Amino acid sequence: MNLLAKNILPEKFWIIEDESNTKLGTIQVSPQRVKVVLDGGNYIYADFDSALSSHDILTSTDPINEAKVNTHNVNDYPAKDQPFNEMYDAIHGLPMYTKTEKSKCFYAAGYYIIHFNFAWAPAYCPKVITLNRNEFCGPYKTEIEMKEQLRLHNGRNKD
To answer: pLDDT (tens digit, 9 = 90+) per residue, 134-150?
Structure first.
């Protein structure tokens, strides 16, 4: 059986799949060790290469979400729409754009988490006015980074 590790979080987290793209396990990389979870077992290795060779795992350079190719960017952050009037708010650290040439409504490129009514919620390219009116964290370049921060922030709010 050929196993393929697809990188999810750059150089930190991989999903192990077989030829039919069935998810079989994970690889988690930390500075101290590499943990492989496969076939119901947990295996610890000193480095990434030894983990791969022990289980005959190949690596893929393709991101796992190849269907979600985003062609629009503002300052290297993904944008939902074709950006016009690109600018960067240095005070708040926001890559901003409008959707049309004459629009006065600005959107923030990237992924964010926004605090609404005692809970954090995910947002992709929210309006800048929404970020100005609420506490937020971001921007993040990937959905996975945003989801990890969302998990951490919502975990803090539990009693």
So the answer is: 999 999 999 999 999 99
